[in-house]
Amino acid sequence: MQQLVDAFSRKFFYLRLSITDVCNFRCTYCLPNGYKPNGHKSFLSLDEIRRVTQSFAALGTEKIRLTGGEPTMRRDFTDIIATINAEPAIKKIAVTTNGYRLARDVAQWRDAGLSAINVSVDSLDPRQFHAITGQNKFKEVMAGIDAAFEAGYKKVKVNVVLMRNVNDKNLPKFLNWIKDRPIQLRFIELMETGDGSDVFQRFHLSGEVIRQRLFNEGWLQIPRARSDGPAQVFTHPDYQGEIGLIMPYEKDFCVTCNRLRVSAMGKLHLCLFGENGIPLRDLLEDDSQQDALQQRIQGGLLHKRETHFLHQGDTGITPNLSVIGG
Predict the structure, then answer these.
(1) Which residues define the annotated binding site for GTP?
(2) What is the tens place of the pLDDT at every residue in 71-81?
(3) Annotated binding site for [4Fe-4S] cluster
(4) Which residues are involved in binding GTP (predicted)?
């Protein structure tokens, strides 16, 4: 099997595939004014998703994460999972979701082949959750996490965007929540985007604050598997849950990059930040174009930069994280 390798000898086993940029939440750090349609958009079809999956699988991809926007807003979401699951080389299919449809649909997603779930929950206080997301859906999201366990998932990952003076003081409450639950709670540093500079300046906080507290309280860091995301993961003998830290501003964050992105409009993005993307859609029209598609993906990878340059305030052309799937 061929393997995707860039000019810095990084190997890529993991694809983040956005299937829509539509979202029904209005998170303060991403879409504070809600989703605004920008002309008529035609997102990747089921056949196009199948062709993307087959090409990346042939190039060594083992894991695909479905992202958005809110990916579960697609009516054919279960069919998308089943389509990807039909490709034997893909060992893991994950989703990042705001969780509002979990309780209703998670069992059928699991039956279709979904192997892992990440749910965004930035606060365990229902009022603060409402203030951050613009949706009074805390109970529904919590019920969805319970439903995921009932459907047979052994672990659920919960994403928390770390925000100074918003949720950074809530670590004890979060830790208490995962003490007897197999939840990997992942604190993600707030990242600067084109539309979000003011929010970034007000709320950004380094994950180092959390990491130091974890070390002080006896948490231990565990190694990453090759198709894992960028989280530093910590365990503690007294806790069933785990803590993950995603710290894109830390030195050498990009050294271990193992993932590529395809947007809902069919562009290959080599990084979450900094470039316009490489069009793939003209090669997704027919099954006979697979070789050309693989060559374009491989050729594009030669242009992947060594780092994201966020430290220099270079946010690239990414206006907000819903555009290419966070």
Answers:
(1) 16, 65, 96, 157, 259-261
(2) 999 999 999 99
(3) 23, 27, 30, 254, 257, 271
(4) 16, 65, 96, 157, 259-261
